[in-house]
Amino acid sequence: MTPLQPGATIGILGGGQLGRMLAVAGAQLGFDMLIYSPEDDPPAGRVAAGARKAGWADKAALQAFARDCDAVTLEFENVPVEALAAIEAAGTPVRPGAKSLSVSQDRASEKAFLQEIGIATADYRVIDALGDIAPALEALGGYGLMKTRREGYDGKGQAWVRLGHGGIAEAWEALGKRPCIIEAPVRFECEISVLVARSVTGETCTWAPPRNTHANGILSKSSVPSGLPKTVEDAARWKAVALAEALGHVGVMALELFVLSDGTLLANEFAPRVHNSGHWTPEACQTGQFEQHIRCVAGWPLGDTHRLFDAEMVNLIGEAGLVDPASLGPHDTLTLYGKRDARPGRKMGHITRRLGLRIG
Ligand code: AMP
Question: Which atom of ligand 1 is nearest to the CA of 212?
Answer without folding.
Answer: 10
